[in-house]
Amino acid sequence: MAAAAMRPSMGALGRISSSTPSPLRPLTQTASISTTAALLKRHKYREARVYRDNSKHRGESAIHRSGTRWRLSMSDEPLPRPVPRSKLPAIETDPDHGLWDFFANRQMISDPPSEIAKHGRSWTAEELRHKSWDDLHRLWWVCAKERNRIATANWERNKGEMGFGEAEAQKRDHTVRQTMRSIKHVLTERFYTWEDAVKLAENDPEVDLTGNGPAFIPSNYLEEGDVAATEGEQQAAETTGETVEKADPVTTATPEPATIPSSQQPTDAPR
Amino acid sequence: MQPTRALQALRFRRLRLTTKDVNKGFYKGTGTGSTGRHTKRGGYIIEWDKVRTYVCPPLDGFKLTPFVTETMPRTYGSYDGPLGPKDPAMYLARWKAENGLD
């Protein structure tokens, strides 16, 4: 009873003495008999054998399916098996996404060369002179998108090392660039002509450039005398206008579906 | 000693101009323009009013294509006078005939 009662207190004493060094006892033992770890260390003589195996994977063999030497910390759950692509759920894409415009065809990465070669000629500057600014602006972007499509198909064909369609794509791209060049030509020409026309209008009695009231006051119906005075000028204007109309009767200032051939319309319009 | 064939007078003019062909102060660039400014410490600050933004106009219902049918021959204008299509009088007359407003 007494020993059992003493034990916890003795244990507590030992714990206290081991964990917190007492100031009364010296920290290092220098006596010949001691139980400290430093003096109990195994003696190493010169030829002492090292029992540790330096080859960590000794005995492991993939051929004999030995497995690992030690148990790995892995769960026993079966590994997931790859699912065939046909059984995967379809990837949902936006059918109206703008990036679809980079492809001529949603089923094929590139049109066949026979399809690439199906295009007309480029616009001439004279045909574009009768288009409005908005039309030219939009036509420019249509051209840019067409060039994007050509470049995307080129890239895809290059990546797949298909080895065809390069010449046709180059020719198609060249045609588009010719059209874009004509657009630039016409817009530059129109700007310079406008600058000159503003200078000319400063001396024109019919044109009021001050910004007060209408800019153009036709004088030929105001008085009989004015009609006679400006008749020559007006006639010149009409004749030049007519020559413009006669030069290109098909293309007019407003875009007409007649300018587009009906055969080309279904293939190119929805792109 | 003579220059290589590629650099002989007539051919040289057809080569692309590089910074090594001219004196100091020649900035070749790429024709792109800047989008900001360099700082004293080597950084770069993008100034958004210098960054170009290209706005595509609405193309719904736009029927023109980059191509014109081959069945239609190429049309060229015939203009009287030395200025050709750049005649300001013709521009003014067309403005009066078509619009006369803006």
Automatic annotation (TrEMBL), chain A:
GO terms for molecular function: structural constituent of ribosome. It is found in: Mitochondrion. It comes from the Eukaryota. The keyword Endoplasmic reticulum does not apply. Residues 17-28, 229-242 have a biased composition (Low complexity). Its main location: mitochondrion. Pfam families: MRP-L47. Residues 1-29, 56-90, 229-271 are annotated as: Disordered. GO terms for cellular component: mitochondrial large ribosomal subunit. One of its GO terms (biological process) is mitochondrial translation. Residues 260-271 have a biased composition (Polar residues). Keywords: Mitochondrion, Ribonucleoprotein, Ribosomal protein. PANTHER family: LARGE RIBOSOMAL SUBUNIT PROTEIN UL29M (PTHR21183:SF18), RIBOSOMAL PROTEIN L47, MITOCHONDRIAL-RELATED (PTHR21183). Belongs to the universal ribosomal protein uL29 family. This is Large ribosomal subunit protein uL29m.
TrEMBL record, chain B:
It is found in: Mitochondrion. GO terms for molecular function: structural constituent of ribosome. The keyword Oxidoreductase does not apply. Its main location: mitochondrion. GO terms for cellular component: mitochondrial large ribosomal subunit. Keywords: Mitochondrion, Ribonucleoprotein, Ribosomal protein, Transit peptide. GO terms for biological process: translation. Belongs to the mitochondrion-specific ribosomal protein mL41 family. This is Mitochondrial ribosomal protein L27-domain-containing protein.
